[in-house]
Amino acid sequence: MGWRLPTSTEWSNAHGAPQNWVAYADSYNSVLKIHGAGYLSTAGSLASRGTEGIYWSSTSTSNINASAYEFYSALNVLTSVTKAYGFSVRCLR
């Protein structure tokens, strides 16, 4: 089996128990080492580098939106966003 993006359910499970990611640093301190890489805006500029992380899932929520795992400060949430953004990916095997 090859590499793939996690589903929205897998992202939900990753930040829940037993990890219990509740603060920004928790996701980096986990075995996954998820960090605040920022993202490319729809205008093509780099935004929120070092303060926010948004990682795509493989789950589409519509023709133009997909589910992504977003975190910053004390927020960790699955959200549906336009596919036009350049978010990070974390592949699974």
Summarize the structure.
With 93 residues, this protein is an alpha+beta fold. It has helices at 8-15, 24-29, and strands at residues 39-40, 46-47, 52-60, 65-72, 75-82.
Characterise the protein shown here.
This protein is of the alpha+beta class. The chain has one domain (8-82). It is built from two helices and five strands. It has helices spanning 8-15, 24-29; strands spanning 39-40, 46-47, 52-60, 65-72, 75-82. The strands form two sheets. The chain has a three-stranded antiparallel beta sheet with strand order 3-4-5, covered by helices on one side. A two-stranded antiparallel ribbon has the order 1-2. It is globular and about 35 Å long. The model has no long low-confidence stretch (mean pLDDT 87).
Strands, helices and their partners?
Layout: H1 8-15, H2 24-29, E1 39-40, E2 46-47, E3 52-60, E4 65-72, E5 75-82
How many individual β-strands?
Answer: 5
C-alpha Rg (nearest Å): 13 Å
What count of domains describes the coordinates?
1
Mean pLDDT level = 87
Key traits:
93 residues; three-stranded antiparallel β-sheet; 31% strand
